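Exercise 7.
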Amino acid sequence: MQNIFIYPAEPSDAARELYLYATNCASAWLMAEAAFRNYERKRAKGTYDAALARQGLRYAVETAAKEYAREHGAPGDKWHAMFKPADRAAAAHMLMSDAEAEWAAGNKWSN
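Solution. The predicted structure, written as tokens, is:
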């Protein structure tokens, strides 16, 4: 069984494109920020699980993939065909890694 939480050494072009789009898509970013605040509370309680956090961010990444397909795809293009599950998992991993780097630097999402 393949572990979908392992970040590939070199993400695909589709994964990088989805990551960049997710950081600039308002609806996806609002979902990601809400998740980051939730994970911050879990870190404070000591119940934070990095693998589950990455899995939880996949909802925000899927939202970004759907928006990307609507905005940039041809009529009839399917979002799930444009971005394979491995690409979506890699984009979620990149988003969560950014948040963890911010936490390591002492920055917080919540006030």
